[in-house]
Amino acid sequence: MLSFTDHWTGYVALAVFLAAYVLVIVEENIHLRKSKPVMVAAGAIWILTAIAYASQHQSHAVTEILRHNLLEYAELLLFLLSAMTFINTMSERNIFEALRTRLMSLGLSLRAVFWLTGLLAFFISPIADNLTTALVMGAVVIAMGAGNRRFIAAACINVVVAANAGGTFSPFGDITTLMVWQKGVVHFGDFFALFVPSLINWLVPGALISMTVSREKPSATMQTVQVKYGGYVVVILFLITIAGTVLMHHFLAMPPFLGMMTGLGVLKIYGYLIRRKELDEWAEISALDNENAISHATSLKPAVKPFDVFISMKRVEWDTLMFFYGIMLCVGGLGALGYLATLSDVLYGGLGATTANILVGLLSSVIDNIPVMFAVLNMNPEMSLGQWLLVTLTAGVGGSLLSIGSAAGVALMGQARGVYTFFAHLKWTWAIALGYAASIAVHRVMNGALFSP
Predict the structure, then answer these.
(1) Alpha helices (H) in 167-315, listed in sequence order
(2) What is the C-alpha to C-alpha distance for residues 373 and 316, in angstroms, rounded to an integer?
(3) 335-350 mean pLDDT
(4) Rounded distance, CA 297 to CA 361, Å?
(5) Is residue 292 over pLDDT 60?
(6) Do 285 and 293 touch, CB atoms closer than 8 A?
(7) pTM above 0.85, yes or no
(8) CA–CA separation, 299 and 292 (whole Å)
(9) Where are the domains of the chain?
(10) Contact (CB, 8 A) for 17 and 45
């Protein structure tokens, strides 16, 4: 493979990428959406890559590499588009809001809330993804701990760690695990070997942090939220879609996006039925006299704006999806220039797989784990299944070391602004680091047979 790491195009491309990533890091300060600089950088890097390859009369080769990178992104985009639409539909049908109010009505102590929200975050994130899970559990924490800044900060840290840990033993829990699964280096069933190490990763810091949480019992709220028509069916359709996706991939070798997009098609058909029912209800209300119509419209407020699945699709995190486009093409371009091969030689050739994979996790606490994992997958070092599981674990949970290291942490900093902060999280980094080390040790012991070549 050609290498341009000592060519002027390689130097400029690397500088462009670093400049773009600096803008991503300071997004909160300059209010420039993270997708914008990396999309521009992706275009610039591939232009430089094309110039470099043209100098060696290899223009056709760079086109093929670019198309390969685009195919990888397209598969990820379609998978996430489907998953996010399902999640947004469940949110619109009040599934998560009903769960939140139900938890608040239980009359639990703050310490019980601490453990329950952590437990739910750990077990929901493998299905609903760690970001959505963290936001739902964060809302519970903030509502239950109103006025108790110390509890909110501690519980938010616990939710972030639990959501990130829970997302590592399922391809649906985090973008990095999804990429590893789609690449085919780890099969669906193999991810569950990470269940106990992931659990340890959360329980160690969770136990230490919980010692500072009081047993005070806040007053329970009697507020209830009604799940809208069809909400529970949407949840069932989502679970069936996941199961179908896994089975199609396992038995028919079909790429995961196909199962998810088929499920999205079923959701859209069911969405049509929901919309027809709500339109009929609105027509009935309109037929009443004015006084009854007003009172009835209040009780059936969802029918005022009938369900539209395309609104759920519109509310997908397009900035995030475009960020993935920019990052994956940036990293792919740097790989085409030879930087990933060089980095692979330094890390996996010089330091060894175990040390390199642990460093990948530490790096993901500072740099988003998406480009880090995509770089590792593009390096494609020769590793055993145990090592691939190790890097999946470290990239997934390493982001918990700092509040800025994961989407869950960044989202909760915005949700609990001024209470759950970078420095509030940093105070417990030592405990999270103990969990990080313990999870690696447990994985090495429990899954030692998987480390054999």
Answers:
(1) 175-183, 195-210, 231-252, 256-287, 290-299, 309-314
(2) 23
(3) 87
(4) 53
(5) no
(6) yes
(7) no
(8) 11
(9) 8-228+316-451, 237-306
(10) yes
